[in-house]
Automatic annotation (TrEMBL):
Keywords: ATP-binding, Kinase, Magnesium, Metal-binding, Nucleotide-binding, Thiamine biosynthesis, Transferase. Its cofactor is Mg(2+). Its EC number is 2.7.1.50. This is Hydroxyethylthiazole kinase. It comes from Bosea vaviloviae. ATP binds at R124, T148. It catalyses: 5-(2-hydroxyethyl)-4-methylthiazole + ATP = 4-methyl-5-(2-phosphooxyethyl)-thiazole + ADP + H(+). One of its GO terms (molecular function) is hydroxyethylthiazole kinase activity. Catalyzes the phosphorylation of the hydroxyl group of 4-methyl-5-beta-hydroxyethylthiazole (THZ). Pathway: Cofactor biosynthesis; thiamine diphosphate biosynthesis; 4-methyl-5-(2-phosphoethyl)-thiazole from 5-(2-hydroxyethyl)-4-methylthiazole: step 1/1. Substrate binds at M49, G175. It is an enzyme of class 2 (transferase).
Amino acid sequence: MNARLDATRVASILARVAQARPRVHCLTNTVAQNVTANMLLAFGAIPSMAVHPDEVADVAAAAGAILINLGTISPEGERAIPRLLELARAQGKPLVLDPVFVELSPLRMRLAEDILRLPGIVVRGNGGEMQALAPLLAATPGATRITTGAVDRIEAPSGLFEIAHGHPLMTKVTGLGCASSALVAACCAVEPDPGLAAGAALTAFGIAGEIAAERSAGPGSFAMHLIDALASLDEATLLTRMG
Ligand SMILES: Nc1ncnc2c1ncn2[C@@H]1O[C@H](COP(=O)(O)OP(=O)(O)OP(=O)(O)O)[C@@H](O)[C@H]1O
Ligand SMILES: Cc1ncsc1CCO
Ligand SMILES: [Mg+2]
């Protein structure tokens, strides 16, 4: 099922991130901002986090990809969203939606519905979030749907990928799902097939999680080791871990 996503392919996408150093503009939640920025840097990408509706499109204009995360959506963030959608549409820029807790509020569901109208949209959520969005996604042809958990499932126009890497400690540090969405966006900036881009990002993140778990004593040191493991991931490690 993942025949097109071997270690060489993943390494090639990661090398393109390291070479191009794409900026990912993150309209994200206040909890996950720091860990998201640090994971992007460890991955070789560059974060920008502007929120103000009157500057967000200027700041994002030269970014390689955009992330919209609904986790602590504010009135200001809500006004920034159409600016980013307009920019992504005009420039054909990749946009990833992280529908945090979309099942908890009609406001989030309405915002998700607007964002899902963007052609080529990529959505990454956990099982509950993706289940809540299922009726909307069923009416969204061309979207890439990513459900993370013990096994990550990527349903893309180019096919289905399943990633069985990672570690349960990844659920004990807040914002790692949010950070994974940003890494998917970074790969979308350098790889036109969003299925392969998401597969590379989540394989790298999962393998870094496995390595970090071997080095850590609990969730605190795990977060630190995860940044280090992601920053030093190389093709030889991918080959060994992907088998
Ligand atoms: N039980 C598990 N075993 C291995 N890896 C896991 C497990 N659960 C989650 N992961 C990994 O953790 C990362 C985050 O996924 P998760 O589904 O926990 O996100 P999330 O619920 O959106 O997190 P958050 O909202 O806290 O940011 C993914 O890379 C995923 O593969
Ligand atoms: C804990 C939390 N609350 C809103 S966003 C967030 C980070 C994980 O999604
Ligand atoms: Mg989440």
